[in-house]
Amino acid sequence: MKRIFLSLAAATLLLTTACSNERKADEMVNGESVAGADTMGVASEPSMNGDTAMNAAGGAAMADPNGPTAPHKDDPEFMKSAAHSDQNEIQLSKLALDKGVTGMAKEHANQMITDHTKSTAELKPIAQKKNVTLPTDMDAEHKAIAAEMQKLSGADLEKRYMEQMTLDHQKTANTMAAHKAMTQDADLQGFISKTLPVVESHLSMFKQHSGSM
After folding, report:
1. Is 68 in a helix, a strand, or coil?
2. By its UniProt entry, which InterPro entries does this protein fall under (predicted)?
3. pTM, whole model, 2 decimals?
4. Considering the domain 75-210 in this protein, what is its CATH number?
5. d(CA 16, CA 30)
6. For 144-173, what is each residue's pLDDT tens digit?
């Protein structure tokens, strides 16, 4: 009887141990599966972030490097900026003529004085109507540029003048287009609609000729 009892006890112990080992094996397999799923999830996140970063970089690369495209904060600021822009082109063009530029640079300088003087004349009554005082001189940045140009002569001056006109007209065209979309003022919308094509024609002209100098 004792032998039978001991045999039954031993068999029961072996069966219990086997079941326990099987449960542990199942838990290990399930644990590895969960861990693997978590690892894959974590690994996939940098890929998504990388795509987002690439898209952001692509958007930044598409931005115009030559100037701001955002409108001014309000209409008075835009009008003052437009008047400064006219004075920048007029006075730098006069400086170039005084220092004896020739050829295309001379021709373009004379046209800048004529067209930007006309632009200011058309903006003045709009500004007066809205009690905005327009500046009558270059901005600080262009005063510094004028001082640099004073030191140049001949082909160097002509090249510098044409490059500056290209840069300035790109900025002005960008800002005018953006402000036209923002402003609710009919007078300013009319002014921009009339002036922007002239600015764009200047820009095209300077781009075409500055590259050949």
Report:
1. coil
2. DUF4142, Ferritin-like
3. 0.68
4. 1.20.1260.10
5. 21
6. 999 999 999 999 999 999 999 999 999 999
